[in-house]
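Quick one, tokens below. Sequence please?
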């Protein structure tokens, strides 16, 4: 799975750099002078910046898989239009849209990091980032060679065809819904409560999850709906780190029950039900073409049972 995501990031990133050695071929075909053809590269990078500012932050508001699929669909459309463009305006609009679509790499890498445990997170992110950089480095020589074989239009068509194939080879299987809980240090005034609501947390330093965490928006909304200011004293990206900070006495936090229960035996913390009830979905990714092995099926069953048995 890591190799597949690294390949996807490399292909996405390469899409924005394919035009660099090809502008001398692209310009005359659409009536652009050489100086004007360089706008293909400029607008592609401008589109990427536009996507970073306005599109990538939507990952905090929308379901990540759906956002990635929509972005990749837009990228495929832009590549197809690039391949068929017969005038300068259409080509330049497609170049800008292509740059926006390549923002998908900035959604895939945080998604991969969120799906990985602490012990292997650095290694996984490093491999995927390596795939991204390899795509950037190899885009120019590959484009130069491919232009002599299939032409620049054929290269963009091939690039557009690859992404749907990558997506169609995978499927997502919902494992379970995980409830959010409040974690407090042992001996804390709230430790004996049967449940905790946002108003209970107002007097204490709150360790919040950053906007890169999928659940941060849900937690902030729960506070706003209860009429309680969502003031974060310390911010971290991962629930595991929040639990460690709570154990060190830095404050209280609202995290997923899986992270909380995993740390109750390692840290001096207590996990309490948080109301109103909020949940996040846990997913597994597998190949559509290959059936799950018995070991994988057993792992899914055990994981579902373990999550259902969670009791803060």
């Amino acid at each position: 799975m890591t190799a597949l995501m690294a390949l996807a990031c490399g292909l996405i990133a390469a899409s924005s750099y394919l035009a660099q050695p090809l502008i001398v071929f692209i310009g005359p075909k659409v009536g652009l002078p050489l100086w004007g053809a360089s706008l293909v590269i400029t607008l592609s990078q401008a589109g990427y910046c536009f996507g970073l500012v306005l599109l990538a932050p939507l990952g905090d508001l929308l379901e990540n898989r759906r956002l990635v699929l929509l972005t990749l669909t837009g990228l495929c459309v832009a590549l197809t239009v690039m391949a068929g463009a017969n005038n300068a305006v259409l080509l330049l609009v497609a170049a800008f849209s292509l740059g926006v679509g390549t923002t998908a790499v900035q959604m895939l890498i945080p998604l991969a990091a969120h799906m990985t445990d602490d012990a292997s997170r650095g290694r996984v992110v490093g491999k995927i980032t390596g795939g991204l950089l390899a795509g950037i480095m190899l885009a120019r020589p590959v484009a130069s060679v491919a232009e002599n074989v299939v032409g620049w239009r054929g290269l963009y068509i091939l690039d557009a065809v690859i992404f749907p194939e990558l997506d169609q080879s995978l499927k997502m299987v919902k494992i379970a819904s995980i409830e959010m809980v409040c974690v407090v240090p042992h001996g804390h005034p709230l430790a004996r409560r049967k449940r905790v609501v946002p108003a209970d947390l107002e007097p204490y330093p709150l360790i919040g999850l950053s906007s890169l965490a999928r659940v941060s928006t849900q937690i902030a909304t729960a506070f706003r709906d209860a009429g309680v200011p969502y003031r974060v004293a310390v911010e971290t990206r991962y629930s595991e780190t929040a639990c460690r900070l709570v154990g060190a006495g830095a404050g209280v936090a609202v995290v997923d029950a899986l992270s909380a229960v995993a740390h109750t035996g390692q840290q001096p913390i207590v996990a309490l039900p948080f109301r109103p009830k909020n949940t996040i979905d846990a997913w597994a990714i597998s190949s559509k073409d290959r059936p799950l092995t018995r070991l994988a099926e057993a792992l899914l069953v055990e994981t579902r049972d373990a999550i259902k048995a969670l009791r803060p």
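The chain is about 60% helix and 15% strand. The chain has two domains: 2-168, 173-281.
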